[in-house]
Amino acid sequence: MLEIKGLRKHYRGGGGAGTPALDGISLRIAEGEFTAVLGPSGAGKSTLIRCINRLVEPDAGEVIWNGKPVTGSPPEELRNIRAEIGMVFQQMQLLSRLSVMTNVIAGQFARMPRWRSLLGVFPAEAARQARSALAEVGLSGLEGRRVDALSGGQQQRAAIARVIMQQPKLLLGDEPISSLDAVNAERVLALIARLHREKGMTVVLNLHNVAMAKRYASRIIGLTAGRITFDGPPEQLGEHELKRIYPPDPVGADHSL
Ligand SMILES: Nc1ncnc2c1ncn2[C@@H]1O[C@H](COP(=O)(O)OP(=O)(O)OP(=O)(O)O)[C@@H](O)[C@H]1O
């Protein structure tokens, strides 16, 4: 169970001086749920996802993962909690100058003694698991390739292989498909859906594409200007609810219905 209580974040400096990015968010996400977070640009989706594992420090509120407080936990405890939480970003999540293999094995770093990750000494079992994870995402044969020589879609699949390697209980995704073409986006979401189904992973993803969110998620959360404006199953997300999540703006953004 992931519990979020009264989460608040107001970035100091920069642009949006007046409004907080998160304005008191409370949520309970059950184990095994597949949740998609939708909302207009600047609604606070990334901030929410990043506050869950404290890549962004919230100003107030609590995050509790399976009874363990994430907010306020000291570094060693936070490291143990983060070992259970996988993360896929839009881009730049891999070590681009290192091989695909090293990046995938890095999924286990949090569970390895620190000297192994520092020296790059990995048990043969880890290499076997990494090869198997790469096969699952269709990247067999590219183990030795540098990450920066992969296409965007391949990089995102390598990131999923790293998640498979990590075997997290919770997977957080910050727009993991928004830099991909339709075929690769579908492929990456299908891989995440399989991890959810087969390994019982709890999934929370920020998505821009409403249709895809409705297709894959069992629960949709709408976020607008730092507040929850919808929370329910995809079947309940109709035109009316979408208008509340995405209030009309002068630019007339297309939300890919
Ligand atoms: N590091 C930062 N410093 C200052 N303001 C920030 C910072 N990061 C985000 N913000 C502001 O906080 C608000 C929420 O941003 P956030 O990135 O969480 O929204 P988002 O819903 O993920 O947007 P998008 O869909 O465009 O990625 C925005 O007003 C944004 O400008």
From TrEMBL:
InterPro entries: AAA+_ATPase (IPR003593), ABC_transporter-like_ATP-bd (IPR003439), ABC_transporter-like_CS (IPR017871), ABC_transpr_PhnC (IPR012693), MetN_ABC_transporter-like (IPR050086), P-loop_NTPase (IPR027417). One of its GO terms (molecular function) is ATP binding. The keyword Membrane applies. The keyword Transport applies. Gene3D superfamilies: P-loop containing nucleotide triphosphate hydrolases. Residues 2-250 form the ABC transporter domain. Keywords: ATP-binding, Cell membrane, Membrane, Nucleotide-binding, Phosphonate transport, Translocase, Transport. PANTHER family: AMINO ACID IMPORT ATP-BINDING PROTEIN (PTHR43166), PHOSPHONATES IMPORT ATP-BINDING PROTEIN PHNC (PTHR43166:SF6). This is Phosphonate ABC transporter ATP-binding protein. The gene is phnC.
